[in-house]
Specification:
There is one protein chain. It contains three helices and five strands. By secondary structure, the protein is α+β, with helices and mostly antiparallel strands. Strands 2-1-5-4-3 form a five-stranded antiparallel beta sheet. β3 and β4 form a beta hairpin. α1 runs antiparallel to α3. The longest helix has 27 residues.
Length: about 160
Amino acid sequence: MVPEAGVRDVLDELQRLRARVPLLSGALAASTDGLVLAHDTPGVEAEGVAALTAAALGVSVRMTDATGRGGFRELLVRGGNGYIATYAAGSSAVLTLLAEDRINVGRLHLEGRRSGARIGRLVDAALERVERPAPASAPAARALPPRPTGTPNRGLPQRPT
């Protein structure tokens, strides 16, 4: 799980994103298995949205694989009252945005992709710090092997910004 300091950084990014894009009504960062990392979703049950995001992600990854379109990058759903957009965020997280129907979809994608990349870096760095080997002064503790770098989850590639 992401340490508290990492969660605060992710929440700060979500709040900055909502300040930059006024027609966003909510922003949520979650693990790929549906656990909420941080959210700014007034009036919306974050846990339910995270769980549904994980389900949609599973279908999206299978669709991109089955059609030869490469790894998952983003998903856009349009409802009668607005949009739900999900973006890959590093190797183990996703960013889901709730937007009003009047939003400029190009701007939504631009800001969502950038924030997804930032959140991905924050989450991956926080996880790397947690998994870092113990210092040599603690010989009794067994260190975990370092996470491979440069090989993100096959289903969630890094998106260039």
